[in-house]
Amino acid sequence: MNWKVKAYTQKFAAGLPESIGYRLYYGLQKLHGTFKPDRLMPRLGVARQIVELVRRCGRTVAGKVFFELGTGWTCGTPLGLWLCGAGKVITVDLNPYLKESLVLGELHHLTTHLEEVQRLFGDDGQSVVFLERLTYLCKRAPRTLADLWALTGMEYRPCYDARKTELPDHAVDFYFSWYVLQHIPVDDLRAVWKECARILHPEGLAVHCVDAGDQFTRADPSLSAINFLQFDAATWKRYAGNRFAWHNRLRASDHLALASELSFEILHVERKVDESSLKLIHGGFPLHPDFRGKTPEDLATIRLVFTAAKKGPSGSH
């Protein structure tokens, strides 16, 4: 599909009354094969990556409170964290995307592929807590989202403003998101970071993965991952200025600088640089002036994973 066709389709859906727009957007996603039960495994894999990142920074998962920014359509990552021993997982989303039918379909896939799930988690998949919780999940076989929440203690909060969570100070041990920060306008993102600093425990961590590439490449493979860096703000807003397509186009350095500006110390960083985009930049890609002060590697970074801790006496490292 040509990326502009997708852009205008999303813009049309976003302009409809919300109840209709969300149903249409879900239908379009389903039409293009976005929702398949076997896609649970990558989401569970995210949980394992988060656990590994947390441990790399000297923290433990058992009994801790996790806060997920941006639930999405299913809850594989919170479920994976619960299996690994998390005490509580709160998952929130500005949009009411979560679909009961998708969650139950993935649960069925999980309970019929137990060995694959255990292998995915490595040594954690053989731990006493993991096996006990996995057995309990299979035995109870939740039939509704309400059953799943009651069974696991997970909390799902849709239509939620992460700029003002109303949670107590220091209520969260680990605050995380996966492919979400790029969807938040810069001013709102700054407010989200401030709220994160308030609710995060002094010894807590923020763990984020950012998709910094042009996401229209998923519909149009002929597109470069830096295609959107040629447009001015007004033009880009015409294409993607809606709740289904918004991308703030921040580069990796911008995300790290914003976290540092708002009292976080960056502990660990992983970057994926797209080589084809790097070649385009060196070959004279028509970058908009807003992006010309960045290094080629920064511009061509399409994936950023980083872990941060609060600065200060008890949060310094």
Give structural attributes.
13 helices; 317 residues; alpha/beta; globular; seven-stranded mixed β-sheet
Give a quick precis of the structure.
With 317 residues, the chain is α/β, with parallel strands linked by helices. It contains 13 helices and 7 strands. Helix 1 packs antiparallel against helix 2 (18-31).
Topology:
Layout lengths: L2 H13 L2 H14 L8 H17 L8 E5 L6 H8 L4 E6 L6 H12 L2 H7 L7 H13 L4 H8 L2 E4 L13 E7 L7 H14 E12 L21 H8 L11 H10 L2 E10 L1 H8 L13 H4 L1 E10 L7
Parallel strand pairs: 1-2, 1-4, 2-3, 4-5
Antiparallel strand pairs: 5-7, 6-7
Helix pairs in contact: 1-2, 3-4
Main beta-sheet annotation: 7 strands, mixed
Q: How many H/I helical runs? A: 13
| Element string (H = helix, E = strand) | HHHEHEHHHHEEHEHHEHHE
Unreliable spans are: none
Percent of residues in helices? 40-55%
Structural classification:
alpha/beta
